[in-house]
Write a structure and sequence with these properties.
InterPro entries: BP-dependent_transpt_permease, MetI-like, MetI-like_sf, OppC_N. By secondary structure, the chain is mainly alpha-helical. The chain contains 20 helices and 6 strands. α17 runs antiparallel to α19.
């Protein structure tokens, strides 16, 4: 009996029911890891739901979701700013008050960052354990082509380098509220409604000052002593890992929040564009003829337009409309990227989809009377999705650059919402001064992220297609290998 037939006769849930111990052990470990950050995860889910609700005309349930979000933030978690605080003040004796265990704010913040990234790598390791247990206990075959793909990716050093950079970026975006030395609301959105404590040497006592006032005294404008550089403190005892912006706001907090915006725009755009391209690739490969011709003409028409100019034009034209106000302009950018990028994906998937549609098992499925939807879903999709992953990883970095470029030009995401390109634009006049960090650090981070996504894409391509690094398999055979297996 073939592996495919066996898997269809005995569903995965039945295999787990016959041997539940490994699955329950993995689930128990996952629950423990999730419990550590339960409040943060619930908060992220509620924020996503709140974002979707605010896109609706009447905002139904927005108030209830906002209250639930506040309640979720009050749930104790291991890696939050409240448990490992880094904001405090230094007394005349040099002792730090209000920080975790009385540590200097820089070390308290660094401890929290190390723990958060360690937590992320533990999750990564636990997923790998789950994959190995699935192979050992719930999969019929001792080997599938997918095992070779995983092994090739594990030995691909350039791809692993890219994976580490991409993972670091994802963690920065996902844990942005905890990674920043301060909060976006306090330091960027509403600085004059929040207060910070500091030790006033003149009156020799602790004083309160609004964060907005403290920011005005902590600007980085490259003139004389008006600069708070990387890994330094301002006059109010606040630690700034990347220094401050021209208006005194913390650059690291700005970058972490901006990473979340860029990642959200990139992922949603890729999902929409990838869905359109994949559906069209399978439809045109299956039906060919007029369907393929119509898709070719449409995609060629869109691809003939300069993407950057289209982005600038669309952002300028729709900049004052209602759609530009949805999620501070992010929805408009998602719509533009989705429309302009699906033809590139479709062109990349069209060849593999046509190649698979000519295989003998597709003809066999047709002769057995399977519906076209079933054939495309079960027999064609698994073999084109590998190429989609390759081009998606290569494209995501380009979208991040495009979003930063639009923000640099004053388009796209509306202020004061953090976006990396706006930091580069603000710091450009000070590149040759003591405030070089405002433009240089965001520029270096954008470069690293793009290199990371490109390296990961190269690794996925070489793992799926050994021919790309001198193997004997053809591209079509590699596509089959990449999608096959139970």
């Amino acid at each position: 009996m073939s592996e495919t037939q066996s898997d269809e006769e005995v569903p995965l849930r039945d295999r787990i029911a016959a041997n539940p111990r490994p699955a329950l052990q993995w689930l128990a470990g996952a629950i423990v890891l999730l419990a550590v950050e339960f409040g943060a995860f619930i908060g992220v889910i509620i924020q996503l739901a709140l974002t979707v609700v605010r896109l609706l005309p009447s905002n139904p349930g927005a108030a209830a979701l906002a209250s639930a979000g506040e309640a979720a933030e009050s749930i104790p978690t291991l890696l939050t700013r409240g448990l490992i605080p880094n904001q405090g003040y230094q007394t005349a004796s040099g002792e730090w008050m209000g920080t975790f265990l009385g540590l200097e704010p820089a070390y308290a913040w660094l401890l929290r960052v190390v723990l958060i990234y360690a937590y992320a790598f533990v999750w990564l390791g636990w997923f790998w354990v789950g994959y190995r247990w699935f192979r050992d206990h719930y999969r019929y075959a001792d080997w599938t082509p997918r095992d070779d793909v995983v092994d090739r990716l594990r030995s691909h050093r350039w791809g692993q380098f890219g994976f580490v950079l991409v993972l670091a970026f994802f963690v920065l975006a996902l844990f942005a509220p905890a990674l920043g030395p301060t909060t976006v609301d306090a330091n960027i959105q509403s600085p004059y409604t929040h207060y910070t404590k500091y030790y006033d040497d003149e009156i020799e006592s602790v004083s309160n000052v609004t964060v907005g006032t403290a920011n005005l005294g902590s600007t980085s404008q490259g003139a004389g002593g008006e600069n708070v550089g990387p890994w330094s403190y301002d006059d109010y005892g606040r630690f700034h890992p990347f220094g401050t912006l021209t208006d005194g706001k913390d650059l690291f907090t700005f970058m972490a929040a901006g990473a979340r915006i860029s990642l959200m725009i990139g992922l949603v755009s890729l999902m929409i564009a990838g869905f359109i391209a994949t559906a069209l690739a399978m439809l045109t490969a299956y039906y060919k003829g007029l369907a393929d011709l119509a898709a070719v003409i449409t995609s060629d028409s869109i691809q003939s337009l300069p993407v950057l100019l289209v982005l600038i034009l669309a952002s300028a034209v729709f900049g004052n409309t209602w759609i530009a106000n949805l999620y501070n302009g992010a929805v408009l950018l998602i719509a533009i990227f989705s429309v302009t990028y699906w033809p590139f994906f479709w062109r990349a998937l069209r060849g593999p989809a046509l190649q698979i549609s000519e295989q003998e098992w597709i003809d066999a499925a047709k002769s057995f009377g399977q519906k076209p939807r079933v054939i495309m879903q079960k027999h064609m999709f698994p073999y084109v999705v590998g190429y989609l992953l390759i081009y998606a990883s290569l494209t995501l970095g380009g979208i991040i650059i495009a979003v930063a470029g639009l923000s640099y030009l004053g388009l796209g995401i509306t202020p004061p919402t953090p976006e990396w390109g706006r930091a580069i634009s603000a710091g450009q006049p000070y590149v040759a001064t003591a405030s070089w960090h405002i433009s240089l650090i965001p520029g270096i981070m954008i470069t690293l992220i793009v290199v990371g996504f490109n390296a990961l894409g190269d690794g996925i391509r070489d793992a799926l297609d050994p021919q790309s690094e001198g193997g004997e398999e053809t591209g079509g055979e590699a596509a089959v290998a990449g999608g096959g297996g139970a």
